[in-house]
Amino acid sequence: MFSKLKLITGHANRPLAEEVARHAGIPLGDIDLFKFSNDESFVKINDNVRGADVYVIQPTCYPVNDSLMDLLIIIDALKRASAQRINCVIPYYAYARSDKKDQPRVPITAKLVADLITTAGADRVITVDLHADQIQGFFNIPVDHLYATPSFARYFKSIMQMEDIVVVSPDSGGANRARALAKRLSCSLAIGDKRRSGNDDNAELLNIIGDVAGKTCILFDDIIDTGGSLVKVAKALEEHGAKKILAACTHGILSGKAVQLLESSPIEKLFITNTIPLDEEKQNCSKIVQLSIAEMLAMAIKKIHIEESISILFR
Ligand code: R5P
User: Fold this and answer.
1) Where residue 202 falls among pLDDT bands split at 50, 70, 90?
2) Does the CB atom of residue 226 touch ligand 1 within 6 A?
3) How many domains does the chain have?
4) Same domain, yes or no: 117 and 162
5) Is the pLDDT score of 196 beyond 70?
6) How confident is the model at residue 3 (pLDDT cuts 50, 70, 90)?
7) Could you tell which of 133, 206, 221 is best to mutate to test the pocket of ligand 1, judged by most ligand atoms within 8 Å of the CB?
8) Pair 184, 105 in one domain
9) I need a labelling partner for 39 at 20 to 30 A (CA). Which of 94, 195, 202, 220 fits?
10) What average pLDDT does this structure show over 207-236?
11) Both 184 and 277 in a single domain?
12) Do 237 and 255 fall into the same domain?
């Protein structure tokens, strides 16, 4: 059993870390984290962490490489300050989509990032909705993989009647994730099916497998980045006679022109979690609704600290 539980955060998502700290009833530790004028990062942990069970809350979101580097140097500082166990709470794990060598001469960056985190000195990773479950295996340390699906399911049940609802996966790769939500909502499932049109490599046909006509569709994905994938499927759903189109994604990266794309799309509302903080433009977008996963993370931290099962979080 570890005596002292400490929470620490970098700059990546301070509002989430503060919310987690409130739920856990533990203040955030005091650290200095800044960049020198030469762009090198520096960290100093101001609290004594000797023998402590430390949880570093740092999603590797925008600016991705700074967030990652800050996480690495925080781990290194904690290790050298004799923390007993270093747990990295990485609600959004960047580079997760680079998880295989599917073209010649490309890196598997998700594995490289796992190696960097482990080599820096992490003892455990706690994360949410990895792009692919198998990324857990890139680590040789325990990974507690949490899911936002139960939170989304509870939320949808609380705001709408469960009649004529269909959960839609934008592609076959996300079918398991969408099926899990459909099961919790006791509704049907549909899948977007992208095909090349004839010999033209650039022309795509988007078919929808499943019955969506006259139904409320909940497009469900792990990530909305540029918004391109989701909006394309939303348009296809509209063409197939969907009555209403909602979308839910765990990680709202919303890069580039994603917000404008969303505004002009048939998606009425986009539900995302707070794994990634929203800038002002995104906060002001009336289509975006953010759900908090802070309580789930706080519960996970408290249970892991006392070596209890976290299965309750999957219900
Ligand atoms: C793909 O496999 C992912 O689940 C997302 O659908 C995709 O990465 C989202 O990217 P974008 O919003 O840029 O289309």
Assistant:
1) low
2) yes
3) 2
4) no
5) no
6) confident
7) 221
8) no
9) 94
10) 97
11) yes
12) yes
Q: Is residue 131 domain-shared with residue 155, that is, in the same domain?
A: no
Q: Are residues 279 and 303 in the same domain?
A: no
Task: Report pLDDT for 115.
Answer: 98
* Cα torsion through 184, 188, 194, 198, rounded to 10: 160
Cβ of 256 closer than 6 Å to ligand 1, yes or no, is no
Atom of ligand 1 nearest to the CA of 131: 4
Q: Is the pLDDT of residue 201 over 60?
A: no
* Nearest ligand 1 atom to alpha carbon 258: 12
Tell me the sheet residues that pair with 127: 90, 145
Residue 162 banded pLDDT, cuts 50, 70, 90: confident
- Going by the DSSP 8-state scheme, the letter that residue 28 receives in this structure is B
Mean pLDDT of all residues belonging to the chain: 96
Task: Tell me whether residue 79 is one of the annotated catalytic residues.
Answer: no
* Whole-structure pTM value: 0.96
Is the shortest distance between the CB of 174 and ligand 1 below 6 Å? yes
CB of residue 227 inside a 6 A radius of ligand 1: yes
Q: Average pLDDT for residues 5-14, to the nearest whole number?
A: 98
Please state the rounded mean pLDDT for residues 161-169: 95
Which of 97, 122, 33 has the alpha carbon at shortest distance from 70?
A: 33
Confidence of residue 130 (pLDDT cuts 50, 70, 90): very high
Both 188 and 206 in one domain: the answer is: yes
- Alpha-carbon torsion angle 259, 264, 265, 267, nearest 10: 70
Write the CATH number for 95: 3.40.50.2020
Indicate if 139 and 244 belong to the same structural domain.
no
Handedness of CA 219, 224, 229, 230 (dihedral sign): positive
For atom 8 of ligand 1, which residue has the closest CA?
A: 223
**Is any ligand 1 atom within 6 A of the Cβ of residue 98?**
no
Q: What DSSP string runs through 85-107?
A: EEEEEESS-TTTT--S--STT--
Can you state the angle between helices 64-80 and 109-120, rounded to 10 degrees?
30
Probe target for ligand 1 pocket from 181, 223, 255, 261, with the most ligand atoms within 8 Å of CB: 223
User: 225 C-alpha vs ligand 1 centroid, how far in Å?
Assistant: 6
194, 232, 244, 287: the active-site residue: 194
Identify the domain containing residue 219 by its residue range: 149-291
What is the distance in A from the centroid of ligand 1 to the CA of 131?
A: 9
